[in-house]
Design goal:
With 366 residues, this protein is an alpha+beta fold. It contains eleven helices and six strands. Helices cover 64% and strands 8% of the residues. A four-stranded antiparallel beta sheet has the order 2-3-4-5. The chain has a two-stranded parallel ribbon with strand order 1-6.
């Protein structure tokens, strides 16, 4: 039985203000799990399902078709692996089939699940055992971090661009706002990458990318083999955030600024966040499923370059953790696939029995 924790794990303290941006940056391909086009699958040996992951504190979380798995290495040295079924809404929900709406929904579910797993990993890394994080603790953590993210990535660029508005008009101010947001984003990830604790998270981020790339290339999941692959990945959350920053320039460009009070401008930015996230989700999803196209690869190249700041080369112990998490998902999915035909057969048998019973009870229907 897991112990219940009502406060913050001490090791989570350096991450509290950075929680939401860090989750998205280190989410690797977790946010975007899509299906490749049949032509690209055949030509580029792409899988029919893209596994995703997220770096944790001394660990890695992986998402499969049916389960989410987390592997963490506590101070004792052995790898602890935990898995649980995906929330029904993520695994089978109708929302994930609706373009644009699914982006907002999946992003929300990913942040909730990612926050819980990050806090659990912090507790395991510190305590050496799985600890249940209190709901209130998780909610407060998310509120503080979301507020901080909105402040530095939306309010600050808007306020600073007001200096340009006096001479450059609405267009100049909106372009300046986007440029300032991009500079803040790059500076932000450069800054947090200097923190020892987050450097290790970024190294696990690289390990997660390597393991998924090895699996997608159909290579053996061994540390030596996995280490041959790049720490950059097409579906990384870093790319997602970069796209959000870029397309926000377009969206905010349609909002007039002259004579509009600053509080209303701030509210307009916050209100458009779900819309921008939904569009960014679809663009990254499109890029992942059409990555065989040379034009798509060129467009997404800056996202890969930026990952040099959000990943670090992992050591073999980190690769072992990432592999353990991915193998847990693969095993669960294989088991679910094997059970599916038996469940279908059982359902057919039950339907046949019901039909037989109905015919016996109502001979005139036979």
């Amino acid at each position: 039985m897991r112990r219940h924790l009502t406060g913050w794990p001490a090791r989570l303290a350096p991450h509290l203000l950075f929680l939401i941006p860090e989750l998205l940056i280190a989410a690797g391909p977790f946010v975007i799990s899509s299906v490749a086009r049949a032509g690209d699958r055949a030509r580029f040996r792409m899988p029919d399902f893209f596994y995703g992951g997220q770096a944790l504190i001394e660990g890695v979380m992986m998402r499969g078709r049916t389960t989410v798995a987390m592997s963490v290495r506590p101070p004792s040295g052995e790898i602890h692996t935990y898995s649980e079924p995906l929330p029904n809404a993520l695994a089978r929900g109708r929302w994930i089939k609706i373009p644009f709406a699914r982006g907002v929904f999946v992003l929300y579910e990913t942040l909730v699940l990612g926050t819980r797993m990050l806090m659990r990993s912090a507790a395991i890394a510190a305590e050496g055992e799985d600890i249940e994080i209190g709901r209130g603790t998780m909610i407060v953590s998310m509120i503080v971090s979301i507020g901080f993210a909105i402040l530095i990535f939306f309010v600050a660029p808007l306020a600073l661009s007001g200096l340009v508005h006096r001479s450059g008009g609405d267009l100049g101010a909106n372009v300046a706002e986007g440029a300032i947001r991009l500079v803040i984003f790059v500076g932000y990830i450069s800054l947090i990458g200097t923190f020892g604790e987050i450097r290790r998270v970024f190294a696990y981020h690289g390990a997660e990318h390597k393991a998924i790339s090895a699996h997608e290339a159909q290579r053996p999941l061994t540390p030596d083999e996995v280490d041959r692959f790049s720490t950059a990945h097409t579906r990384c959350g870093t790319t997602f955030i970069l796209i959000v920053v870029v397309i926000s320039i377009v969206f905010f460009g349609f909002i007039p600024r002259s004579g509009v009070p600053l509080p209303l401008l701030i509210l307009s930015r916050i209100a458009l966040i779900p819309v921008i996230a939904a569009v960014a989700y679809e663009l990254v999803r499109f890029g992942a499923s059409h990555y065989g196209n040379s034009v798509v690869r060129a467009v997404y190249a800056p996202g890969l370059w930026l990952q040099a700041l959000t990943t670090r080369p992992p050591d073999h112990s980190m690769l072992e953790v990432s592999i353990a998490s991915l193998q847990s998902c693969l095993a669960s999915d294989a088991g679910a696939a094997a059970d599916a035909p038996r469940a279908a057969d059982a359902g057919d048998g039950a339907n046949a029995a019901a039909a037989s019973g109905d015919a016996a009870a109502h001979p005139d229907h036979a």
